[in-house]
Design goal:
Blueprint (H helix, E strand, L loop, with lengths): L1 E10 L8 H7 L2 H6 L5 H19 L11 E5 L5 E5 L1 H7 L2 E10 L2 E10 L2
Antiparallel strand pairs: 1-5, 2-3, 4-5
């Protein structure tokens, strides 16, 4: 049973030339290390949208946890999913999250559904 949905859109140009000190407040070390040189801004914009959509799917926004508690990774087929830690993991306990990311023309969108575990 679905407990919440979240969607967010982000402009990739927002991340053009962004200072590392600011990136480090929004993205985990592993996310930053995995950012490709080519399409770097799109990579960060899509992950930022995913984190915002995650928070919206909880119905809380980013309250009680940090963006650094949410990491967007891909499986071997390239499907994105969340690895949660700290307070985000505690708040999300008992739920399964489905993530879809898309981008085109400098816009990145993410949609998340949250479901109760069976």
């Amino acid at each position: 049973m679905i407990s919440g949905i979240g969607v967010d859109i982000s402009l990739s140009s927002r991340f053009d030339g962004m200072e590392d000190s600011l990136l480090e407040k929004m993205f985990t070390k592993r996310e930053i290390e995995r950012a490709p040189e080519r399409r770097r801004s799109e990579y960060f914009a899509s992950r930022f949208a995913a984190k915002e959509a995650f928070a919206k799917s909880l119905g809380t926004g980013i309250r009680g946890f940090s963006l650094l508690d949410i990491e967007v990774v891909e499986n071997e087929d390239g499907k994105p999913y969340f690895e949660l830690s700290s307070r985000a993991l505690e708040i999300a306990r008992g739920k399964i999250f489905n993530l879809s990311i898309s981008h085109d023309g400098g816009l990145c969108i993410a949609m998340v559904t949250a479901e109760y575990e069976k």
